[in-house]
Specification:
With 365 residues, the chain is of the alpha/beta class. Helices cover 42% and strands 10% of the residues. It binds 2-acetamido-2-deoxy-beta-D-glucopyranose (4 copies).
Length: 365
């Protein structure tokens, strides 16, 4: 009898401690480079990856909301860290148990740091909106497991923030938008940084401690920007803007990491390696780095990939999937570079926090 009671007690304790230990999960804020389906559930959004051939090299090959043929950069980094893949916030199957097990992805195609970015997509989540949805998510989790446990869960989670390219491509660089004639480039980047600073401080207030911000790639070399230029080459001016944005964002993240209590906020980018892949594709096993794998005959820009489009012969040989977005093969290189730059270790390797691997000593500059 005593032995039986003891056994039951031990099983109960095991169950409780397994639950308390909890999985380490990620919350992702981003744009189409990280969207895993949110926009497909926004009925009026004009930015969707819901038609073939999006997703052709992912799972069952049907469109899944990712704006590429396969995995996103965040998918690949998470996989390599041993973290679960967070479902889209708007996934109709999302439950609190699923959030505790896998986290949530709030990323939305067309979204930017600024509210006014990407207006012509009509419906999307800008970063402020994504943060609002995160706050709602915290309340749902709190209600289910209690405030204390919820705070612990969110403090131990990992966070990715990956936005900024739409603030240029679908805002500042388009003369139809007010921001393009209101600000100089430096003023506009300052405006983005002061907004991003507020956003990252608000997230810290919600218990976010271990966060990585992904910088921009050489945007002037995406097929769309080449086609809009005169020569068909990379638009150097646009690349310089991305470079300037990255420098400012890197300084911002360093500054916040130094001054926000317990925050490990880091900047990860792969600008240099992507530029090298674009200029020397053969070195990395690519054959094409200037046009989209999925295109509409000679009609450029093709805007989106649709069933009537034609596909390149070998998707692993193309850097770009459509006018804007890299292929799975290119995303793999980007992910590996970010992991190498930040020294991420798989979560199961040493008990070391994968995103938070502390740097020797934070230097001011
Ligand atoms: C750790 O996780 C990675 C990625 O999920 C996996 O490939 C590796 O085998 C795991 N290693 C151990 C020691 O469990
Ligand atoms: C939601 O769950 C149902 C039933 O398990 C499943 O058939 C469906 O594919 C799921 N939907 C998504 C978007 O995961
Ligand atoms: C931006 O949008 C959010 C809601 O998504 C709103 O709460 C906020 O006031 C807006 N900010 C500005 C500066 O318009
Ligand atoms: C920082 O971490 C310490 C140790 O875990 C904790 O006691 C303290 O409350 C934390 N402070 C904030 C602001 O998170």
């Amino acid at each position: 009898m005593e032995a039986m009671k003891m056994a039951i007690l031990m099983i109960l304790l095991l169950i409780i401690s397994e639950h308390a230990k909890g999985a380490i999960v990620q919350f992702i804020f981003g744009d189409s480079l990280s969207d895993v389906g949110n926009n497909n559930y926004l009925p009026r959004s004009l930015a969707k990856a819901n038609l073939p051939y999006y997703g052709i090299d992912f799972g069952n090959g049907l469109p899944n909301g990712r704006y590429t043929n396969g995995r996103t950069v965040a998918d690949i980094i998470g996989d390599k860290m041993g973290l679960p893949r967070p479902p889209a916030f708007l996934d109709p199957n999302l439950t609190v148990d699923m959030i505790l097990e896998k986290g949530v992805n709030f990323a939305s195609g067309g979204g930017g740091i600024l509210n006014e970015t990407g207006q012509w997509f009509i419906q999307k989540f800008c970063l402020w909106k994504q943060i609002e949805l995160f706050e709602g998510t915290q309340q749902m989790v709190s209600k289910k497991i209690g405030r204390q446990a919820a705070m612990e869960f969110f403090t131990n989670s990992r966070y990715v923030v990956a936005l900024g390219s739409n603030d240029f491509i679908n805002n500042y660089l388009m003369p139809v938008y007010k921001d393009s004639w209101t600000y100089t480039t430096t003023q506009f980047i300052d405006y983005l940084m002061s907004t991003l600073r507020q956003q990252l401080i608000v997230l810290h207030g919600y218990g976010v401690r271990q966060l990585v911000f992904f910088g921009l790639g050489p945007m002037g070399c995406i097929p769309l920007e080449r086609v809009l230029g005169i020569t068909g080459g990379c638009q150097t001016k646009v690349n310089n803007i991305a470079f300037q944005f990255n420098k400012a964002a890197s300084n911002l993240l360093k500054d916040l990491s130094l001054h926000l209590p317990n925050a490990t906020y880091r900047f990860g980018d792969a600008y240099d390696v992507v530029a090298d892949v674009i200029h020397n594709p053969n070195k990395y096993g690519f054959e094409n780095s200037d046009s989209p794998c999925c295109s509409f005959g000679r009609i450029r820009p093709a805007l989106t990939c649709i069933p009537a489009s034609s596909l390149c012969k070998d998707r692993s040989k193309y850097v770009f999937w459509d006018e804007y977005h890299p292929t799975d093969a290119a995303n793999e290189i980007i992910a590996e570079q970010i992991i190498a730059n930040l020294g991420f270790k798989p979560i199961n390797a040493s008990g070391e926090a994968p995103f938070g691997a502390p740097e020797p000593a934070p230097s001011l500059f």
